[in-house]
Structure formats: C-alpha cells, structure tokens
Write a structure and sequence with these properties.
The protein has helices spanning about 5-15, 70-80, 90-105, 115-130, 160, 170-175, 185-195, 220-230, 250-255, 280-285, 305-320, 320-340, 365-370, 370-385, 405-415; strands spanning about 40, 45-50, 55, 110-115, 135-140, 180, 200-205, 235-240, 260-265, 275-280, 345-350, 350-355, 385-390, 395-400. The protein is an alpha/beta fold. The radius of gyration is 21 Å and the shape is globular. The structure holds pyridoxal-5'-phosphate.
Amino acid sequence: MNHEKSENLYKKALEFMPAGVNSPVRAFKNVGMSPIFIERAEGSKIYDADGNKYIDYVCSWGPCILGHAYPTVIESVKKACESGLTFGACHKGEIELAELIKKHFPAMEMLRLVNSGTEAVMSAVRASRGYTHRDKIVKFEGCYHGHSDGLLVKGGSGLLTNSIPDSAGVPEGYTKNTLLAKYNNTESVEKLFEKYGNEIACIVVEPCSANMGVVPPQENFLKFLRDITKKYNSLLIFDEVITGFRLGIGGASEYYGVKPDLITLGKIVGGGMPLAVYGGKREIMECVAPLGSVYQAGTLSGNPVAVSAGIATIKTLESNPEIYSGLERKSAMLESAMKSAGLNVNRAGSLITVFFNDEKVTDYDTAKKSDTKRYAEYFSYLLENNIYTAPSQFEAMFVSDAHTDEDIEYTCEVIKKFR
Ligand SMILES: *Cc1c(COP(=O)(O)O)cnc(C)c1O
C-alpha cells in the first residue's frame, strides 16, 4: 500500500503544528507510523491522499453513527449555511434541538449548547460546584473528560497511551480538588466519601468507559454511584459524550437504567459538527448565568449550522429505530470473529476494544497491562487490509449504520486471519 502523498503532507504539517496534528492521537505515535491524510469520506469508507480506500471504524471518534456524509445531514447543513453561518443571537433551531435532546434524555430538564465535549464537562462540573457550594470532585482513573485543567488527572485516551499521568502546565492547585477512584471498584469510592463526603460536589464518570479502551460498568456499579451521591447530597454527572445516542437513542442512562443529575453530550449530538451539550435538573441549571451565578458563555454556542446537523442526525435516529438493532447485530458479528481469533474483547453495543492481555479488562490497571506493541501489529495488519481502526490501544472501535453486511463479513474474515 502506497502512503507517499500522506507522508509528504505529514512532513509539511510538522512545520506548522506540534507533531503535525491538531489532536494527539492522530499522530499515530503509538503504532509507530506516520499518519494517513484523509481526502474524503462517504458512508462507511474513507479515502486517503494516495487514493487508498478503507472501511472506517474510527468514525471521527464517534460522531458518524450514520456513516460519513449522510445525505439528509449534508442537505440540512447546506441549507443552514445559506442563511448565514453564525448569528451570535437566539434562533429557532436551538429550541428544536433542545426539545429533541430532552425527549430522549429526560434527566436533562434544562440544557446549554456548547462547542466541544471538553467545554461541556468543564461547565457541568462548574455548575455542580456552584449548586452544591462544594469544591471537590471524584473522577475515575482511565476516564477521559476532555482537556480542562481540573480533569487532566489520570485521564484515558491520548494521555493513557502516552503515559502522561498528568499534563505539564497544570498548576498543582488546579487538581488538588480532583479525587481519584478506581473504575468498577465501589470500595475506592466509599473510602473517598467516608473521608471527604461533605466536601464532594460531584462524581463525574463515563457510564461506559471508552477512553481506556472499552470498559463497561459492572453490574450495579452505576446504581452504587447513584446511591452514594444521594446519600452525601453530591451530584452524579454522566459524561455521555461518547455513549449519548450511541448505546441507544437514550444513551447510557437509558441503557443501564440509571438517572444522573447532570449529563454531558458531544460527538453524535453534533452530527459531525462542533457541538456539545450539558444539562440536567432544572434547579441545578438555574444556577447558570445570567439566571444564576455560575458563569458560562460562548460566542459560537448554538451555532445554526452545527445545530442543523445535530437535528438532522437525531431525527434520522429517531425515525429509524432499527438502526440500533442493526448496530448490535453487526457489532456482535465482529465480537464473535475476534473471539474466534482468540482475541480478548470488550464490547458494549457498537463500542468494541480488543486488548492484548490474558485477563479480563475491568479498569485502568488491567487496561494498562495490554501489550501495546501487539496492538500496533494488529492495527497495521488491519490497515494493510484496508480497515481503518484507532491508531491506539486505548480507544474504541465504532460501528456505524453505514457499515454494510459485506463490510462486516470482510472485516471478520480479515480479523480471523490475524496471527
Ligand atoms: C471525546 C470525549 C470528551 C471530549 O470531547 P471533545 O469534543 O474532544 O472536547 C469528553 N468526554 C468523553 C467521554 C469523550 O469521549
């Protein structure tokens, strides 16, 4: 496979951007290659600068649940563009999107539209602190909640891969209120609450972790988090930036049947455009400015073009519930092919990760034991066979509605032959 044009573009990009990229995991550092440059994408396929075609299981890290360039989404975006790219003022689309979101996430009685998952989680945490008048928060090792200062402690995703336990440039004071617990370990949470219970504003958690690779919650783990936060008058935040509209139209809250106080959405909710959301109980959201004293704002928040992509995406998911049964069926086929190849696989709905270690991966410690060299071999083997997956062990493989049975069967055949 020829990557000459990508390699030349990469050399140029290196002059302008750190490692040539605008987000760390795109650099392919963890698989010891230089990145491929994408020229266009359609349905389940992406095409690189050298004209190679791949079945794409990254799906822009989650947003493209309908596949790339979905016709009705593209149409709405084009139409929105013609009416102006941004107003910095109220418009009808914001209400329509909010209504659609609330319908499927009833815990979000009120919400705010923002521009990225990072911003959504940062703002939700701020609202939880403003509402409770408490400073401490609990997060889990291996969970990633964007790159805001207070949350850059033992995060997953690019951080986990690069073994940076913490980021430089974050003063100690910014993380001293971030308490760390272990995912799927109720005892580690209990201990923190016994010691600091009345100072803890919230627990923020990925209800199904997907940033240390996919690590689903064990039976009753989320229910436990719900109960202990209630007991101490703390809030529970589900960071559903990946799981929202992914595990089902009602996200992880519906999938696992646990109702948090606040939810953050991103990725799918913007239909491929930069848009994210935070919201929850009315009385918490009423603390947000200008109604309350928790400040949060955004020049491009509620951007009409991004909103139109979100609306078109959610409406499509809503009127085609068979999309989710299709995702489940195709994902189960991939899982079973991986198992028959002797691979260690974790799956929740259309989120899948293959780990290269012998024990079941249930948290950050077990995830870290995966043989990342072996993962790099697996990645480049798939790439050579025109299958594009995450260039890092600690990410999910995303299945979309656009993946055809033919795509899945071909992928299964290739996986089964991995040695
Ligand atoms: C991707 C992600 C974020 C950050 O979202 P950005 O849009 O990249 O800022 C936050 N939380 C989770 C769970 C994510 O997967």
